[in-house]
């Protein structure tokens, strides 16, 4: 392959490759690997995302021309800010942002409203929360501290015939008193603040899953501007085509190759998906720093 050969891989591979490999027989996997349909690919690109102690690897086909790519929404890495958290991609982005910024000793809070302070709609709830953050930051400024780091998921339910339900789930840096936080929130008394005690393998993923589930309520999320963004790198040479296809067929080999490619990280889990048009595979692997 020419040293400067251009490749095309700027498509949404999570949309293009959705069939779970576990649903296929071994002979079907062999046939997919041999298939050369429309949009046949030239190799595999690897996107590595580092977020705190978590590392994710996405391994997916790259193509010789843009026309060969699967037709999906482009810009897969665009920041899905304030999108519906029922979307898997938005939840994954949020989880990486949490891993990059929060961990043991930080705060997981829920702020609620009583009947006298119930906002009319999510926009009003956002304004109330903005003023809450301003009060926190004014106090921090007096103490010589920078603005607080936080991620907030606002959940709003207004079903006909049912009582309105609004609350904010917040993950926040831990150098602030829980009593002070609850005193600064002036809109309801049924609040909860607790210290994060992360799972050794998944960190705060359980919290993210909890605050982003429940498809019955509308959700929007926001974050402070002072957060550390996950680090993303791409490589077309990390895993060759033959290596990637062997990884698909042999789970033990997949784990060994992932560990070898990312020394210093503990392998947690992986999944493999396929595309019926071009016969390509998509591998997602997740690791934690040893």
In short:
Helices cover 29% and strands 26% of the residues.
Overview of the structural elements:
The protein is an alpha+beta fold and 290 residues long. It has two domains: 13-77 and 231-289, no CATH class; 104-197, Alpha-Beta Plaits, CATH 3.30.70. Helix content is 29%, strand content 26%. A six-stranded antiparallel sheet has the order 1-10-11-3-2-9. It has a five-stranded antiparallel sheet with strand order 7-4-6-5-8, with helices on both faces. Strand 5 and strand 6 form a beta hairpin. The two termini are 36 Å apart.
The assembly state of the depicted protein chains is single chain
Roughly how many Å apart are the termini? 36 Å
How many domains in all?
2
| Estimated helix fraction | 25-40%
If strands are numbered along the chain, what order do they take across the biggest sheet? 1-10-11-3-2-9
Overall mean pLDDT stands at 84
Secondary structure: number of strands: 11
Question: What is the CA-atom radius of gyration, in angstroms?
Answer: 22 Å
Low-confidence stretches: 21-25
Order of helices and strands: HEHEEHEHEEHEHEEHHEE
Number of helices: 8
Specify the overall morphology: elongated
| Binned strand content | 25-35%
**Structure classification:** alpha+beta
Largest sheet: 6 strands, antiparallel
């Amino acid at each position: 392959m020419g040293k400067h050969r251009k490749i095309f891989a700027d498509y949404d591979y999570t949309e293009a490759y959705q069939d779970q490999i576990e649903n296929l027989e071994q002979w079907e996997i062999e046939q997919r690997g041999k298939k050369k349909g429309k949009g046949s690919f030239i190799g595999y690109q690897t996107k590595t995302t580092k977020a705190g102690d978590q590392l994710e690897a996405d391994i997916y086909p790259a193509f010789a021309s843009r026309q060969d790519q699967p037709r999906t929404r482009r810009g897969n890495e665009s920041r899905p800010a304030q999108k519906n958290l029922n979307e898997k991609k938005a939840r994954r982005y949020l989880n990486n942002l949490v891993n990059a910024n929060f961990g043991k000793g930080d705060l997981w809070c829920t702020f609620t409203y009583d009947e006298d302070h119930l906002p009319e709609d999510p926009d009003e709830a956002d304004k109330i929360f903005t003023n809450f953050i301003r009060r926190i930051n004014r106090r921090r400024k007096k103490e010589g501290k920078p603005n607080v780091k936080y991620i907030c998921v606002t959940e709003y339910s207004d079903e006909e015939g049912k009582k309105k339900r609004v609350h904010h789930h917040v993950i926040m840096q831990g150098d602030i008193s829980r009593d002070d936080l609850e005193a600064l929130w002036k809109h309801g008394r049924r609040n909860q603040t607790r210290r994060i005690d992360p799972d050794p393998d998944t960190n705060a993923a359980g919290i993210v899953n909890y605050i982003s589930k429940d498809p019955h309520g509308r959700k929007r999320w926001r974050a402070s501007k002072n957060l550390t963004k996950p680090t993303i790198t791409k490589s077309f040479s990390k895993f060759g085509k033959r290596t990637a296809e062997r990884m698909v067929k042999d789970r033990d080999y997949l784990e060994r190759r992932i560990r070898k490619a990312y020394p210093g990280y503990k392998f947690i889990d992986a999944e493999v998906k396929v595309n019926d048009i071009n016969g390509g595979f998509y591998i997602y692997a997740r690791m934690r720093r040893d």
